[in-house]
Design a protein that fits this description.
Layout (H helix, E strand, L loop, with lengths): L18 H6 L38 H6 L1 E6 L8 E2 L5 E2 L1 H13 L2 E6 L5 H6 L5 E2 L7 H5 L13 E16 L16 E5 L3 H12 L7 E5 L2 H9 L5 E5 H10 L6 E18 L3 H17 L1 H8 L11 E2 L4
Parallel strand pairs: 1-4, 1-5, 7-8, 7-9
Antiparallel strand pairs: 2-3, 6-9, 6-10, 6-11
Helix pairs in contact: 3-9, 3-10
């Protein structure tokens, strides 16, 4: 959901190369796994790639998580295809699939718990969750606990393990783009977005630049799906979300008849798994596990399953966002 949060360093493409996915229609989906189920292999520490005398990713886990056998994952499970509930009510998507793969390496269950996106970092601080995994953008502001709008420190910040790259897209009702191709074209129009996302920040920043009093009317919702409903009903001229999410909506909503992406992606930046400051062992364990599934090829299989290969990374990074 964002990434979702702070403004990112300007780029011409959350990735320009990913745009080919929408054109090619490669966001085709396959059956999704249940992330709430602990597989039998989850009780076994994986040591693939660890040489003699070298700790496996599972060995790096904090003792309390090892003893519980569970990592509690805060996530806004309403952001398909990154995380959502499938037709059977099970948690599915890119993040849950990666969580399952990480859980097998670490010997624990990644238990996804639903929460609104703008409360996930607070949930980390309150120890309701061990990590937050929810298409969250890694940014310096979030790392340092800085409000992106006021530039004031509002918390201690979080650490990130970066695992994917994505850009932000604008979309409109299909066949009715109203001349919208860029963010500047939104001046004098209404946009629906998810609250506290990169899209929300971009809309507020662009509105300040609008001339002649033609500001952007911004409607912010708790979930991206609510914003989509508003656009679908004609209550807003456009919407914006991370490219994988926008492309999924274009592909699936109304059988592909509801929406269209307009213009190019902007603000390419990494998604990161958020971890509260001071939990260095957990951060390093998750980084090591992510590197292991990348090396084994399991990561690429999951990314390909959801048709978002252009956003894949070749290694996990800690706090790589700008």
């Amino acid at each position: 959901m964002t990434a979702r949060f702070t403004r990112r360093t300007a780029a011409t493409t959350r990735i320009a190369a990913v745009g080919a996915l929408a054109v090619a229609g490669t966001m085709l989906l396959t059956a999704c796994g249940d992330q709430t189920k602990n597989n039998d292999s989850g009780s076994t520490k994986a040591s693939t790639g660890a040489s003699a005398g070298t700790a496996s990713p599972a060995d790096l886990l904090p003792a309390d998580i090892k003893s519980k056998g569970v990592i509690r994952v805060g996530s806004d499970i309403a952001y398909p295809p990154v995380e959502f509930k499938d037709k059977s009510g099970k948690t599915a998507g890119i993040d849950p699939d990666l969580g399952e793969a990480l859980g097998k390496v670490l010997g624990v269950e990644f238990k996804f718990e639903n929460g609104t996106f703008d409360t996930l970092v607070t949930g980390l601080r309150a120890k309701r969750y061990d990590i937050a995994m929810s298409a969250m953008t890694d940014s310096k502001e979030r790392q340092e606990g800085i409000d992106p709008e006021t530039k004031k420190k509002v918390g201690e910040g979080v650490d990130f393990v970066d695992y994917f790259t994505a850009g932000v897209s604008i979309y409109t009702k299909k066949g009715d783009d109203q001349g919208i191709k860029t963010w500047a074209d939104l001046c004098g129009k209404k946009i629906a977005v998810q609250r506290n996302t990169v899209s929300h920040d971009l809309a507020k920043d662009e509105s300040k630049k609008c001339a002649g009093g033609k500001k952007i009317a911004i409607e912010a919702y708790d979930t991206d799906l609510e914003a989509q409903t508003r656009i679908r009903s004609g209550g807003a001229d456009a919407g914006s979300s991370d490219f994988p999410v926008a492309a999924y909506a274009v592909k699936t909503s109304g059988g592909g008849k509801d929406f269209q992406i307009v213009g190019d992606q902007v603000e390419a930046a990494p998604y990161g798994i958020a971890i509260a400051k001071g939990n260095d062992k957990l951060t390093q364990a998750i980084k090591a596990a992510m590197d292991e599934i990348i090396k084994s090829g399991e990561y690429d299989k999951i990314i390909a399953k959801w048709g978002v290969e252009a956003g894949a990374v070749t290694e996990a990074k800690v706090n790589g966002g700008s």
